[in-house]
Design a protein that fits this description.
Strand order of the largest sheet: 3-2-12-11-13-14-15-16-17
CATH architecture of the largest domain: 3-Layer(aba) Sandwich
Oligomer: single chain
Number of helices: 21
Number of strands: 28
Number of domains: 3
CATH superfamily of the largest domain: ANL, N-terminal domain
CATH topology of the largest domain: Rossmann fold
Radius of gyration: 25 Å
Structural class: alpha/beta
């Protein structure tokens, strides 16, 4: 088994800075479409790179007019939108550094993040974001100005709050008075300058600010272009939170390559948007793919009869066809090829049409994707390229290549990055995407740089003979039973979600216990479809106690246990009467379960399982 892996592709020459990446893209393709934005009437408006550049330069000049200094922090608080992207690019051009803030972050954490980062200016999406800042104003003496995207200003805020349009107007006036103001400032930005400060979402304690530099973003843009998978003619649908590094890396890639992005951060609108936007690719977290997978399978089950039999036959043919394709490096012909053509026409093409019809691939990141779900999408003809990375590595560390797919792995390192496995199994990374360090935490920074400058990820993994990386668990998430056996919860949870079509999440609990137990939350959409097909009430509270639902979940748990070592098996479980949500604090904004939050919230229930 290999212990190190590097990319097969050559790294193109990266832009020295994110600032240069923005300037180069605007200059190279001013007339090409850059962004599509949903309108209030239900349509979409379009913006070229030239139009985006003009807006970015006006906003940047406005920031300079507000006395923004090099590397000084500018917050952005809100959901994913074109405004966020334009303001982010403007901060880079003005030489500042963005502090990202999720729209869902509470006022106390907002205050901590802005204080710890010494943020001086902030873009706020709307009044709800301004309200949190107003509440904590006395704790933020260095926050000089709030720039709100939408809505009217509150008179009580005085000139502490201005609108984005007012900032644009001030910037335009400054450019007219000082035509070289923006260019002169951009020229001062250095590769090692701070570009982005992202606070990692912790389940306990305060989050750490990860310092990503101007050169980090230049590198990841070049690295993802170097894979040769995306082109300037692609169309991205972007919904991922831009406060998260996964969303940010896709913007750096767009700047590098120049494709268009349709931007809408409303998660419930994702599936409805796809047939309208007709993207060629989309980045998403596993939860989105799990919902599509469960939704289609629930519909097939509800249809029953001939339709269910045809679907079962089609996926059987599809698996044999794709297995042969992966093994031989080319599409099989003969009878299998003919059968696959029929299966594709009857079943797979209809699934692709539901997701826009033009998707050539998805990109998955942020959490583990179940191999069964990755294989299902590959059979349908929309392969998921699962990637791996952390905030500390600018997201882009490794990713599956279309010509080297192995389900359950996260592919090979991106060009210019090296991955190796330490003696204890920990994954170590070196490359242009690795962070500068943790903000105001030199001791924590020193702890994670080991062995001549490698970043210690905290993940456990292995590398196969083809250079593909497999993540087995988080080092800190491994739990030990009272019998001394180690269990990797996330691997078990990922398998379960592929087996149980009605489950939203499973949280495995076993630390210092005699056996593993689990809390299971139902997925509202899949569970409702299951209930409707059986004439039952669709609310989660009722379904969690329904005998047939319990039997369905039990069957999936038993199937899961058949795949596990004896000490890993789930001996007891409880179906929760409400789903995990971001609003209730059980999920991060990127839809990962906060395990410790869930265990604390349901500690009495968990204790009862061991009584």
């Amino acid at each position: 088994m290999a212990s190190t892996s590097t990319s097969r592709e050559k790294l193109p020459t990266p832009a020295a800075t994110l600032t240069q990446l923005v300037l180069d893209r605007v200059a190279a393709t001013p007339s090409r479409e850059a962004f599509r934005t949903p309108t209030e009437s239900g349509g979409w408006s379009s913006m070229t790179w030239g139009e985006a550049g003009e807006d970015v330069f006006n906003i940047a000049a406005g920031l300079i007019d507000l006395d923004l200094e090099l590397e000084q922090r500018v917050g952005i608080a809100g959901d994913t939108s074109t405004n966020w992207i334009l303001c982010d690019m403007a901060v880079a051009v003005a030489g500042g550094a963005v502090t990202t803030v999720y729209a869902s972050t509470g006022a106390d954490d907002v205050s901590y993040i802005l204080s710890d980062s010494d943020t001086r200016l902030i873009f706020a999406e709307n009044e709800s974001q301004v309200a949190k800042l107003r509440e904590k104003k006395s704790e933020l003496p260095h926050l000089r100005k709030v720039i709100v995207y939408t809505g009217d200003k509150n008179p009580e805020d005085g000139d502490w709050v201005i609108t984005l349009d007012e900032l644009r107007a001030a910037g335009k006036a400054k450019r007219e008075a000082e035509p070289n103001a923006v260019a002169d400032r951009a020229a001062e930005v250095k590769p090692e300058s701070l570009a982005t400060l992202i606070y990692t979402s912790g389940t306990t304690g305060k989050p750490k600010g990860v310092e990503l530099t101007q050169s980090n973003w230049g590198y990841v843009g070049a690295a993802l272009e170097g894979m040769g998978v995306l082109t300037i003619d692609d169309v991205q649908f972007l919904w991922l939170p831009l406060a998260h590094v996964f969303g940010s890396v896709l913007i750096a890639t767009q700047l590098q390559i120049g494709f268009v992005s349709a931007v809408d951060g409303r998660v419930p609108q994702i599936v409805a948007n796809l047939p309208i936007v007709k993207p060629t690719f989309m980045g998403a977290v596993p939860r989105i793919f799990e919902k599509v997978y469960a939704g289609v399978n629930a519909q097939v089950a509800a249809d029953g009869g001939a339709k269910a039999k045809i679907a079962s036959w089609a996926f059987g043919v599809g698996k044999r066809y794709r297995d042969a394709e992966l093994a031989n490096g080319k599409a099989p012909g003969g009878l299998l090829g003919t059968q696959f053509g029929i299966a594709d026409k009857l079943v797979f093409s209809k699934i692709r049409e539901r997701l826009g019809g033009n998707v050539k691939m998805f990109i998955s990141g942020s959490a583990a994707l179940a191999p069964e779900i990755a294989e299902w999408f590959n059979i349908v003809g929309m392969p998921i390229l699962e990637g791996y990375g952390l905030t500390e590595t600018s997201a882009a560390t490794s990713i599956v290549r279309p010509d080297n797919i192995k389900f359950g792995t996260v592919g090979e390192p991106v060009p210019g990055t090296e991955i190796k496995i330490a003696a204890d199994g920990e994954i170590l990374v070196k490359g242009g995407g690795v962070m500068r360090g943790y903000h105001n935490k030199p001791e924590a920074t020193a702890e994670v740089f080991v062995d001549g400058g490698y970043f210690a990820t905290g993940d456990i993994g292995e590398i196969d003979a083809m250079g593909r990386v497999k993540i087995t668990d988080r080092k800190k998430d491994l739990v030990k039973t009272s019998g001394g056996k180690y269990i990797a919860p996330s691997a078990i949870e990922s398998q379960f979600k592929a087996l149980c079509g009605v489950a939203g999440s499973m949280v495995v609990h076993a630390n210092n216990r005699k056996f593993a137990s689990a809390l299971i939350s139902l997925d509202p959409d899949a569970a409702a479809a299951w209930a409707s097909a059986r004439g039952k009430p669709t609310d989660i509270a009722s379904l969690s106690k329904d005998p047939d639902m319990i039997a369905t979940v039990t069957e999936s748990v038993n199937e899961l246990n058949g795949k596990l070592n004896k000490w890993e098996t789930i001996k007891k479980f409880e179906i929760l009467d409400s789903p995990f949500t971001v609003e209730d604090g059980e999920l991060t904004p990127s839809l990962k379960v906060k395990r410790k939050v869930v265990e604390e919230k349901y500690k009495d229930l968990l204790n009862s399982l061991y009584a």
